[in-house]
Each structure stands twice: as C-alpha cells, then as structure tokens.
Amino acid sequence: MSRLKGFITQLFASSDSPAASSDEALLVRYREGDGSAFEILYARHRQGLYRFLLGLSGKPELADEVFQETWLSLIRSTIQPQGRATFRTWLFQIARNRLIDHWRKHGARQPLHDSYDEQIHAISDEAADPEQLLSLSLDSQRLENALQSLPTDQREVFLLRAHGDLDLAQIASLTETPLETVKSRLRYAQQKLRRLLAEEVLT
Questions:
Q1: RNA polymerase sigma factor 70 region 4 type domain: which residues (predicted)?
Q2: Which of 11, 78, 83, 88 has its CA 20 to 30 A from that of 169?
C-alpha cells in the first residue's frame, strides 16, 4: 500500500509545482508574487538556519534576532544568487553577515576573526561525520556545551556542514577561507566533538 501511495504521489506531482521546484526557482516565483513559494523556502531552511545561528552565537535571544533579520533581508532584497552560489549558501551568508554586524554594532569581540593555531590544538582521535557526532549527544544541552567548547572558526565550519548541509567548497567560499583550512577546521572540530560526546555517553 505504501508503495502504491508513493507511486500515486509521484504520478500527480508536477515538476511545475512549487513544492517540486529548486530553491532558486522558488525565489524567482516569490519575487514574482507567489507567496506560497516563500512558505516552502522557509519550511525547507528554517530549522537548519536557526540551529546554525544558535550554535555559532551560543545565545538563543541573539539567534532569534538574527534569524528574523536574515529572513527580512531576504524579503527586502531584489538580488538573486550569482554565479555558482546556491540559495542555501546565499541564505547562510546573509545570516553570517547579520551576526557579524550585530557583534560590531554592540562592540563585541568578533570571534570569527580571531587567529587560531590549529596545529597546536589538533586532536588525534578518529574523526566522524557531523551527523554521527550529533547523534552521540544525550541531549541538546550537552551538545550545546560541547559545541561551545570549540574555537569559533571550527564551530562555524562544523555547523555549516551539519546544519547548512553545505559542501566544503561552498563553506570555503562563504567564509572566504582557503579550502584546505576549511578541511582542517572541520577535521579538528569532528575529532574534539567525538571525544567530548563519547565521554558524555560513558559518564
């Protein structure tokens, strides 16, 4: 029965329907006045975007504020993602810029601009995928504590990979960081999180 339902769903799903459209096509539809296209975009990306902001800022109130500012920026913008940039990369770039703007406005230290010697802080534990590391956490608070223990540059790369679902090349472009540096940051973040979360499971 489930196979039959799936077949019927595919049979009647039109490639022209908003739900079947790419993010970029939905953005065009929204700019042309299709409000339902925005609803689909929001539903697709709201969870990952909010988790990225919460993990990077470490403050729910700030994450909420920047989350809303990000979507308002998108609503007000008339710009379409350019070149090889995807909608998702563009959306997370807006969010990252809004967060940095907030830090600057309030005179806060900008941790994304801090220098960090990754070789000194390297951990030899075997790495795991971001999704596997997230599943190791016993609860959201323990995961948050583990994430906040990471250097901010490493935490950002991990969050963009885990919640933004961006590949390493996209992360390098978004953060304006060499690809090899992005790879190193992700590897060290995975190693440290794996160790911290494994310790949580054993205690």
A1: 141-189
A2: 78
Contacts of 58 (CB under 8 A, 6+ apart): 144, 148
Query: In this structure, what token pair is assigned to residue 193?
Result: 């999180």
CA distance linking residue 92 with residue 48, whole number of Å:
10
117/41 Cα distance (integer angstroms) = 38
Angle between helices 35-57 and 23-31 (to 10 degrees): 120
**C-alpha–C-alpha distance, residues 172 and 182, integer Å:** 6
Dihedral sign for Cα atoms in the order 166, 169, 170, 175: positive
Give the largest Cα separation in the chain, rounded.
59
Q: So where are the chain's domains?
A: 23-106, 130-199
Q: What is the CATH number of domain 23-106?
A: 1.10.1740.10
pLDDT, one tens digit per residue, over 130-170 is 555 555 444 566 777 888 889 999 999 999 998 998 999 99
